[in-house]
Design a protein that fits this description.
This protein has 437 residues and is of the alpha+beta class. It folds into two domains: 41-171, Four Helix Bundle (Hemerythrin (Met), subunit A), CATH 1.20.120; 210-434, Phosphatase 2c, domain 1 (4-Layer Sandwich). Helices cover 54% and strands 14% of the residues. It has 13 helices and ten strands. It has helices spanning 4-24, 35-56, 61-84, 91-118, 122-126, 129-142, 148-152, 157-209, 258-275, 282-295, 373-376, 387-398, 403-418, and strands spanning 220-227, 235-241, 247-254, 303-310, 316-322, 328-330, 336-338, 358-361, 366-371, 427-434. Helix 2 crosses helix 4 (91-118), helix 3 runs antiparallel to helix 4 and helix 12 runs antiparallel to helix 13 (403-418). The protein starts with a helix and ends with a strand. Residues 1-10 have low confidence and may be disordered.
């Protein structure tokens, strides 16, 4: 083991040697940062590529102009090859062909460079069918000592290139239009689904405003049903309780179907309910309702109405008719008769119309049947109407039971008769059975 003095001396000597070596080693330069330069080059390349692609787009006028120019030069070049083969051509003609070749090659070369600039991957474009055809069109001109006349005929391959490009553009356009059509169809289906949902809500609300049951009166049994032909209907019925204990029965049919008829139906029903307590006579009530509807009828619609005022204590029936189907009365002996009495004009067509009153007497056990022409004018697949005779037969056959039973049987009979034929009109039916209290 070395003495401490010797070890310290050796350590100092080693440190001195390391310092000398460090001084001899030249200072290393920091590496050059090329990232900004590369990013700048990529940005320039991307900008050039985007501009070239924009120029060559076949859906823009400049892209179409370039394609048309190339097509014209192909025809000119191939034509010059054919004409140049004619022997004995003057020298000036051959010089003209030479100038024409220079122009053609110059345009082809510019287009080739432009497509190189527009290519996402240059190597892939150079070795593609399009790139090889473009190169064949111009390379022989730059090769000295090569007879390019025969090679120029290969420029016909550029026609295939153009056709291939046009097919690709057409396929792309068709695919794009198909996507747009699919998007529009999806939007349309969504809008239709929303509209259908809203109409279903409106249908439910329209049915909800109609009374479900006949007013609770001694000896009275009433039932009704309304079946719209479309989502919303124009028919309506109503039971109006009057101040003197009598009941107003309404059966109405608005011209047309759908949303306009439904709106007019709501207006007509509201007017009748407002006016009925003020005018105890049916004819006067209809006349007043007609004046209101004529004053506020921007759609020029009209409604046929049968309105009767029934006294449940006596069975007396006073009624007026505004162009509607006359109701039927089934007597206890099974006979069926229509309520007589001339009717007036439909409501909403002309102001100043008067509606005469008529009187009928129900006897205990009689049934009063009010309906719209959606029943009698229901058609089957053979275009045959249900008709009044079938309705009367149903009233005779099932008139002995409850009011709701007669309603169900008539509606079922109409549905069976129509079969798969579409419902042509709204179906509305009301039955009142009266027995002495």
């Amino acid at each position: 083991m070395l003495p401490p003095e010797t070890a310290a001396t050796a350590s100092e000597a080693n440190m001195g040697a390391r310092e000398i070596r460090a001084q001899r080693v030249p200072e290393a330069h920091p590496p050059m940062n090329l990232a900004p330069a590369l990013r700048s080059a990529h940005s320039v390349r991307a900008a050039v590529r985007a501009r070239a692609q924009l120029i060559l787009r076949p859906d823009r006028w400049i892209g179409r102009a370039i394609d048309n120019l190339i097509l014209a030069l192909i025809v000119l070049s191939v034509g010059s090859v054919i004409l140049e083969a004619i022997p004995g051509l003057p020298a000036w003609v051959r010089r003209t062909f030479r100038v024409e070749e220079i122009i053609v090659v110059a345009v082809f070369s510019l287009e080739y460079l432009l497509r190189l600039a527009a290519a996402t991957k240059i190597r892939n474009f150079v070795f593609s069918f399009e790139g090889v055809v473009d190169l064949i069109s111009i390379a022989p001109f730059y090769l000295a000592g090569v007879d390019t006349r025969a090679v120029r005929a290969l420029r016909l391959l550029r026609l295939l290139r153009l056709l291939k490009l046009q097919r690709r553009v057409l396929e792309s356009t068709v695919a794009e239009r198909t996507r747009e059509l699919a998007d529009k169809n999806a939007s349309l289906e969504e809008a239709q689904a929303q509209l259908k949902a809203e109409l279903e809500v409106a249908r439910a609300l329209q049915i909800a405003i109609l009374p479900e049951t006949f007013p609770m009166k001694p000896g009275c049994d009433g039932a009704a049903r309304m079946i719209p032909a479309t989502t919303m209907g124009g028919d309506f019925y109503d039971f109006i309780e009057l101040p003197d204990g009598r009941v107003g029965l309404v059966m109405a049919d608005v011209c047309g179907k759908g949303v306009p008829a439904a709106f007019f139906m709501a207006v007509a029903r509201t007017n009748l309910r407002d006016i009925a307590p003020q005018y105890p006579e049916p004819g006067a009530c209809l006349a007043q309702a007609n004046e209101r509807l004529c004053a506020h009828n921007p759609m020029d619609l009209f409604v046929s109405v049968f309105y009767c005022v029934f006294d449940p204590t006596t069975g007396k029936l006073k009624y007026a008719n505004a162009g509607h189907n006359p109701p039927y009365v089934r007597r206890t002996d099974g006979s069926v008769e229509a309520l007589s009495g001339a009717g007036g004009l439909v409501l909403g067509a002309m102001p100043g119309v008067q509606f005469p009153d008529h009187v009928a007497q129900l006897r205990p056990g009689d049934r009063l049947v009010l309906y719209t022409d959606g029943i009698t004018e229901a058609f089957n697949s053979a275009d045959e109407a249900y008709g009044e005779a079938r309705l009367i037969a149903q009233i005779k056959a099932y008139g002995d039971g409850a009011a709701v039973g007669l309603v169900e049987n008539i509606c079922r009979s109409v549905a069976v008769f129509a079969g798969a034929a579409p419902q042509s009109d709204d179906i509305t039916l009301t039955v009142l059975k009266w027995g002495a209290p």
